[in-house]
């Protein structure tokens, strides 16, 4: 089979038509499968004959999603899960045992932080966090028993970056795997395997669906890891993705590049406008020249992404901004066709102690906006209105 370029892979990758020759991918809404004979069932269970056994193990629609996404990211294999967190949790658990150590970035999606800080230690896994973007600090934090280095870049909601290549080299020198949560960037904006990542996890709920319809996740890696270590986890613990949701996500992939590229373009234009407005203390966007890690952003991301964060200086100004928006909705989701804005300190990052929140740059004035597919002109007017309200409230 010819290897597709990314645009073609998004449309054609993994496509497996039935004997009916349907144009669109079929939804195989079935829990189980039947066999031609007792011998065929025996052979399939022994792994001597290809084919599906049970949808907790694998399903044709789910397989199409897995193959399309794996090919896009340059991974040998992908396994889909019912949510992004199922991918993160199962991926981590498949890599460690009691006595091992997991090193992670402090700035993580809240549920990832909870798993690493609270859950893993309950099962005898040591964990620790790095606050810094300096690779030297990551090297210092490695321990002889570090098995996984886990990070997210750009970080949510500060959009601070980590150097993928440098941290991958540090992980490998210490005999650990680098696992990257790439949900925020999406596979269009950042390809972590090219910088040395060993495992990439996604919340497909975000950009891959990107239209607010369903939850989903995926874990991508080399065949050896996924087949020997992760597959037993998936098969026996049951985080399987529904075939219907897999179908929604397969169709989401078809328009992923178009959506993310347009959303990124609009985000950059809006970032430039916002930066020029007096009401803003700081405009955080990786492809702005003023971003402290602008050069790193240009070297490991293809666009600045779909998220834009603003520091409006105070909670009053941030709330005035949110309440004055007429088009952008107040919502904690991201990567959606609809532009969505949230106040991290009182919603997504509310559980973090205030000192930690401040240490990682999530002040009371910070607002995160996920830029959607509305016109730039309409969003610019909405921002203008909201910035004026923020200015008046400050
Ligand atoms: C949303 C998100 C998750 C969790 O994904 P779900 O699909 O909601 O389980 C994990 N990591 C990041 C960076 C996210 O944005």
TrEMBL record:
Instruction: Kindly state a single biological-process term from the GO annotations of this entry.
Output: homocysteine biosynthetic process
GO MF annotations in UniProt = carbon-sulfur lyase activity; pyridoxal phosphate binding; transferase activity, transferring alkyl or aryl (other than methyl) groups
Whether Mitochondrion counts among this entry's keywords is no
Among Gene3D superfamilies, the record links this protein to: Aspartate Aminotransferase, domain 1, Type I PLP-dependent aspartate aminotransferase-like (Major domain)
Q: Tell me yes or no: is Transferase among this UniProt entry's keywords.
A: yes
What is this protein for, i.e. what is its function? Catalyzes the formation of L-homocysteine from O-succinyl-L-homoserine (OSHS) and hydrogen sulfide.
- What protein does this entry describe? O-succinylhomoserine sulfhydrylase
Q: Which organism is it from?
A: Aliidongia dinghuensis
| Gene behind the chain | metZ
């Amino acid at each position: 089979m010819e290897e597709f370029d990314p645009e073609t892979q998004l449309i054609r990758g993994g496509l497996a038509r039935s004997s009916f020759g349907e144009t669109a991918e079929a939804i195989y809404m079935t829990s189980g499968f039947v066999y031609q004979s007792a011998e065929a069932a025996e052979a399939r269970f022994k792994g001597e004959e290809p084919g599906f056994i049970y949808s907790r193990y694998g399903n044709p629609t789910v397989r199409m999603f897995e193959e399309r996404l794996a090919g896009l990211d340059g991974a040998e294999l992908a396994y889909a899960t019912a949510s992004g967190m199922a991918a993160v949790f199962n991926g981590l658990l498949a890599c460690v045992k009691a006595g091992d150590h997991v090193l992670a970035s402090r700035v993580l999606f809240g549920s990832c932080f909870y798993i690493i800080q609270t859950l893993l230690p309950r099962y005898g896994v040591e964990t620790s966090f790095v606050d810094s973007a300096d690779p030297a600090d990551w090297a210092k934090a490695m321990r002889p028993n570090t098995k996984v280095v886990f990070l997210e870049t750009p970080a949510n909601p500060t959009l601070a970056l980590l150097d993928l290549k440098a941290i991958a080299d540090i992980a490998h020198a210490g005999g650990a795997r680098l696992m990257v949560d790439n949900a925020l960037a999406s596979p269009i904006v950042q390809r972590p395997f090219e910088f040395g990542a060993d495992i990439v996890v996604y919340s497909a709920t975000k950009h891959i669906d990107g239209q607010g319809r369903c939850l989903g996740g995926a874990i991508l890696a080399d065949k050896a890891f996924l087949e020997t270590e992760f597959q037993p986890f998936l098969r026996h613990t049951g985080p399987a993705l529904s075939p219907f949701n897999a179908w929604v996500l397969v169709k989401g992939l078809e328009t992923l590049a178009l959506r993310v590229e347009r959303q990124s373009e609009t985000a950059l234009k809006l970032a430039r406008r916002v930066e020029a407005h007096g009401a803003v203390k700081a405009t955080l966007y990786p492809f702005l020249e003023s971003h402290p890690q602008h050069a790193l952003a240009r070297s490991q991301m293809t666009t600045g992404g779909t998220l834009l964060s603003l520091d409006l200086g105070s909670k009053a100004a941030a709330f005035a901004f949110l309440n004055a928006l007429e088009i952008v909705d107040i919502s904690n989701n991201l990567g959606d066709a609809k532009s969505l804005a949230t106040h991290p300190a009182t919603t997504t990052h509310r559980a973090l102690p205030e000192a930690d929140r401040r240490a990682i740059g999530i002040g009371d004035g910070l607002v995160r906006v996920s830029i959607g597919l509305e016109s730039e002109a309409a969003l610019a007017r909405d921002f203008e209105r909201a910035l004026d309200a923020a200015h008046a409230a400050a």
